[in-house]
Structures are given as structure tokens and as C-alpha cells.
Amino acid sequence: MGIQEKIAEIESQLAKTQVNKATEHHLGLLKAKLARLKKEAEAPKKGGASGEGFAVRKSGNATVVFIGYPSVGKSTMLNILTGAKSKTAAYSFTTLTCIPGVLDYKGAKIQLLDLPGIIIGASAGKGRGKEVLAVARSADLVLIVLDVMCAGQRDKIITELEGIGVRIDSEPPKIHIHETPKGGLNIIHGVKLTHLNDNTIRGVMNEYGIYNANVTIRQDATVEQLIDVLVGNRHYIPSLTIVNKADLVKADFFKTLPYEFVPISAGTGYNIEVLKETIYQKLRLIHVYTKRKGEKLDDKPLMMRTNSTVGNVCDELHRDLRKLFKFSQVWGKSAKFPGQKVGIDHVLQDEDIVQVYKR
Ligand SMILES: Nc1nc2c(ncn2[C@@H]2O[C@H](COP(=O)(O)OP(=O)(O)OP(=O)(O)O)[C@@H](O)[C@H]2O)c(=O)[nH]1
Ligand SMILES: [Mg+2]
Known about the structure:
Elements: H1 3-16, H2 24-42, E1 62-68, H3 74-82, E2 99-105, E3 108-114, H4 129-137, E4 141-147, H5 154-163, E5 166-168, E6 175-179, E7 185-189, H6 198-207, E8 213-217, H7 223-231, E9 235-237, E10 239-244, E11 262-263, H8 272-283, E12 286-290, E13 302-304, H9 310-317, H10 321-324, E14 325-331, E15 340-342, E16 352-358
Parallel strand pairs: 1-3, 1-4, 4-10, 5-9, 7-8, 10-11, 12-16
Antiparallel strand pairs: 2-3, 6-8, 12-13, 14-15, 14-16
Helix pairs in contact: 1-2, 2-6, 2-7, 6-7
The structure holds guanosine-5'-triphosphate and magnesium ion (MG).
């Protein structure tokens, strides 16, 4: 049996098995096997070009992508938000590649990437789905764009994103696996587990060829989360759902939608200012002030992505600064005390002050 047949076989078994306490263990092992096979199937062929993803350079303070089915209005939205000129039309697959635009908002330069529409099965390679979704992997925020007439498609888009390793609106699981040369599997529980037992944890770990390790679990994790940690290469990214073409329905319609979203009309411009503000808020950009020795603060802060490091600040200031970096001092929330000496990987927080010393 080839790898694809094995994947299909397990998927059909999963679909057939009832979900309950008695089948939990069995299902867990099947899911682990499925994830391992999928990873194997995806591994780039030796010698071949990877060829995945559009060539887009990140720019500005953050990168935001539009993901949605064809003709939901992604390009119309990019144009109204940024003044870009991405082609729009009433037929599907108008956009064929990645079109960038820049939204200037409250001093931040936010890169918006318009992409071709995806279809069901995109993450498994249908259409140019994999290339499109791959762009989402490196984004700071994913905009899930829905047509008000098909507002029920949100879950399907999330499934496609999950298919390429993107985890929306969640944090990396608090599971730590440290392999050891011998001693078996030592499972350390930080909290009571209600979805997993040691037997299942062992079975899943064995599926990944791990027989000796310290496994520390500090949250009530699911088997999916354990598998995510084992597979690795997962991307935890915030999302914002936008329901477009609000002009086509009465306001009452929106009360029926079971998720959080921003209703807009890219066609008429309705609620566009609210959308800009929501994108900006979701990005949680931070302001970092830089200071030169003996001088006072630069009064214009740098706008940086959340979790930016001192190294990222160096890159922002001068392209050679990273090479010349000796150490830096930090004042503010990320510093243990004012003026703490820190290295290039120190993670900064909003309103921090940084002074860099060169070699
Ligand atoms: N009524 C209405 N029509 C809209 C709105 N926004 C976009 N449209 C129309 O929807 C159609 C598709 O818009 P596009 O912006 O090309 O959609 P897209 O999502 O970029 O489509 P693809 O590139 O094919 O994936 C066009 O005919 C637009 O004029 C809106 O808010 N209301
Ligand atoms: Mg388009």
C-alpha cells in the first residue's frame, strides 16, 4: 500500500469510529499515525526544488494575509484598505498570485497580502492551495474572509489552515518532551489530564519512535496537541474573521452567526474604519524607544511586532548593527531592573527603552 492509500484508509477508519471514552485511546493512536504519515508524504523529495509558496518579501511592521474562497471580495478589500490595484471581477480565480499592499494606520505600516481563492482540499494540494496557505504560515495575522451569502464556510477554511500546520488563535501546547538515552517514558503531570491517559501518551510517543523521554505536561492537553508537539513545525497565529458584502443582507442577519467577526462591505466602504482598527488591535504591535549613549530618548518610537527581540530592533535601526552588536541595556516592562544588560535575543515589551552598544 502506498502512503496516500494508507492515509485514506486511516481517514476512513477515523470517520467510522464513534467518539467516546471507550474509543479514545484507539482514536488517539490512529490520529498519531495519520499525522506521521501526512508528514512523511509532505517531506520534500530529495533533489527536487521545494517550489512551495509565492515569492513575497515581508515588509513593514507586520504581515497580514487574506484567506478565503474565490470571489468573496478579498481583492476589493485590499484595494479599499491600501489603495493597491489588485484585479477584481465577478468570476472565480481572478487573483492568480500574491498581490501586496500597505495599510498606513496610526503610524504602523501593515503589509496586506491578497491571495488567490482556495477551495476545499486546498491543503491537500488542490488548485494552488498549498502555495496560498503556505503564505499564511509566516503571517502575523490571518484574515478569514467570508461572503455573507456563504458565512457558514468559516469552519472549512479553518480546516484547510489546520491541514498545513496553522493553528488559529491558540497558544503552543504546554507540553515539553526531552528525549533521554534510556529509562523509558517518564510522564510528569503538572495538571490533572481529562483527555489523555498515560497509556495513550505512551502509544502516541511510540508511534513517533520515542521510547525514552521525560514528558512534562503543564495543561489539560488533548491528543491533537500532543501530536502537534511531536510533529513540530506548527504555526500559532491569531485570526480575524471578516464577513463581506454586508450590503446584501439586513442587519438582523448578523445576529445569527455563531462566531466573532467584523461585518463590512468592501463594495460600499461600510465599516472599513472599524476593520482597520480591529486589524491594528489584533496585531498587538509594540512601541520601542531607542536611546543613544549620553543623548536623550528618540521621541518617535519604533513600531515592532509582538515578541520582537533586541536583534529585531538592531535590524530596524541599521542593517549592519546586528553584526556590530556587543550588548544592550533595557528599561521598561521586559527589564528585571532599570538598565538591565541583555543580549541580542532578549524579548521586548511595549514601551521599552533600548540602548545598543557596538563592538
Ligand atoms: N455586493 C457586493 N459585492 C462585492 C463586495 N465586495 C466585492 N464584491 C464583488 O464580488 C466580486 C468578487 O470580488 P473580488 O474582490 O474579485 O473577489 P476575490 O475574493 O478577490 O476573488 P478571487 O481573486 O477570484 O479569489 C466582484 O464582482 C466584486 O465587485 C461587497 O462588499 N458587496
Ligand atoms: Mg482576488
